[in-house]
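Follow-up to my earlier ticket, as requested here are the two runs.
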Amino acid sequence: MTTHPVYPYTEASLHTLRNAGDELADATVAALIEGGDVGTFNTLMRYVSTAGSPLPEGLPDAARAYLEATAAPPAWVDWERMERARLFFVDNNVHINTALSFASMPACYVVPRVARLLSATHSLAYPSKRMAETGQFVLYLMRPDAFEAGSKFVPAAQKVRLLHASIRHHLLRDGHWDRAAEGTPISQEDMIGGQMIFSMLVLDSLHRLGIHLSNEGADAYFYAWRVVGAMLGIDQVSVPKTIEEGRQYFDLYMTLNMGPSEQGVHLTRQLIDLYEEVVPGTFFDPLVGALVRHLVGDTCADWLRVPRTAWDTAVGAVPRLLGALETIEDRSPYGAWALDRLGDLVSGLELSALTRGRVMHYAIPETLRKEYGVPDTVLPKNRWSPPPATVG
């Protein structure tokens, strides 16, 4: 782990982060695999899905120690900011899910190292799996009881952290990864990059869609993902603490790492095909690619071979449509309630389509294979503006 602050970030500091993993999770997975305990662990952990539940008998010692050590969020969490983040999500859930689907996922694919890793570690026959896992994870995070006894978020975070460690272990052990050239798989650099893709890029995408964000809401959403990052094993000495630091890291990370790859093209094609399948009929199919192109820009979209269509121009009207809906929401409490309910319904139907009604269990692979409440308070409507780009 890094032992000194790295902001402002440099190419050298990101290179250092590229060679660091997650000591606690890595040691736990190594002990489970070396002891032949992965199958037992996965079987027992299917019964551990809510926070505060007693750990089952028969858990390997390494797993029990890890689960006990990671059973609570960091002591430094500001719960008022976390509640603001939840209200921000309730108010913008459809827009956030749009940004996650059509900006964040393609942004992962435009980093060749990450695209190769995803291609090596996810069954390509089931492209909905990663989207379903991401959607379910965010759903758990933004529930009012996310960190309370009986919630599903903390166990999900514990399992995802071990999943990442198991991928690191298998790729390095089985010779599927060039560590000298690529660093550590799912390194601190890429985990922080992922955190920025799911926070900074989402905020940028909402701004690009014409959604009016408050400073408080944007700050809270960014902060919530910092809490998530800590629970997933991200080094808090190195992680951006503010939106301005996040902008500097994200711009440098993408400038140093993004580019075309065949794996990125393949993953993007699967993403587009998946959402064209989810959306009824075929008339709106070109809108999926158009939204990706609108949110990630032409250069990245061309690298990912997102097809150009007549909808590329039409999608520019989306901010005006969303602005009209926001006007209805701002002027009528009943309109706000109805739009929030509609957002819940759309998000729920989308997640149901992706999961096929199944619960995602985030099991550790033994081998590698080719309801929201209506808020009682409203966040202020002062406009958030993204920090300027820091890399030319």
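Run two:
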Amino acid sequence: MALLSKAASPVKLENLILSDVIGNPLDVIALGPTAPDPTTFVDAISTLRKFKIENEITVQVL
């Protein structure tokens, strides 16, 4: 559940979504506060490794 959804609980949230994104994936259509993020810690580490910048991240982040 997204942060805004948790903060608004137990109130029901409704979104009006207009999209020009192919397939309409909610996590891509700028809905950050109301749509859950499907990525994981492993995804983040993979991205750091892909760009060979994992050694530039402080230990606190990892």
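The only thing I checked on run two: The radius of gyration is 16 Å. Let me know what else you need.
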